[in-house]
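Thanks for the sequence, V.! I ran Ancillary SecYEG translocon subunit right away. Repeating your input here for the record:
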Amino acid sequence: MATHLDLEEQEQIDQLKHFWNKWGTLITTVLVIVLGGFAAWNGYQYWQNRQASQASALSSAVEAAVNSGDKTRIDQAFGDLRSNYGSTMQAAHAGLLVAKAAGDKGQMDDAKAALTWVADNASDEGLKATARVRLAAVLLNSQAYDEALKVLGTKMPTEFDAVVADHKGDVYLAKGDKAQAIESYKAALQKTEPGVEYRNVISVKLNALGEDLK
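Predicted structure:
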């Protein structure tokens, strides 16, 4: 009886050896890939969380510098944020904040630089579009009309269609092209949903140009 069991156990061991000789390398490789991928994913998640945390800290430093009005600190904090965490949402939001602060103080070159950076580097298309629309307004204020139209001609998400058309109207009007301005304002009005307050702003501009919308 004992001999029978020994032979049966030996047969099972031989079958296991045969199985492992045939499939062992593949199984080991798969396990290494799976476990390695799991470790890499955890590492990536840790890296992302760390990036976000450090970017948030620098973004807070930018906001504090803006609130204090210290241009040197603004440039330093925003520069560090761009250099080290330029692909984060925090960097893009900080850029918009820096641009607004500069524009409020009449520092149009600084506002243009910050908005251009966001428009070129933000990871979110909505933030890119926001930067471009604001950049066009800065260029309009600087009488760089053709440059402003070029920025507004860049492809943006469809939800920006109305505001882009409205800004184009402002640029054309500043250039003295009344017919093109009216066409742009009408396009903006058409792309704005009924009941939205923004329609009133566009309507006022058209009325001022002699267009009766009734």
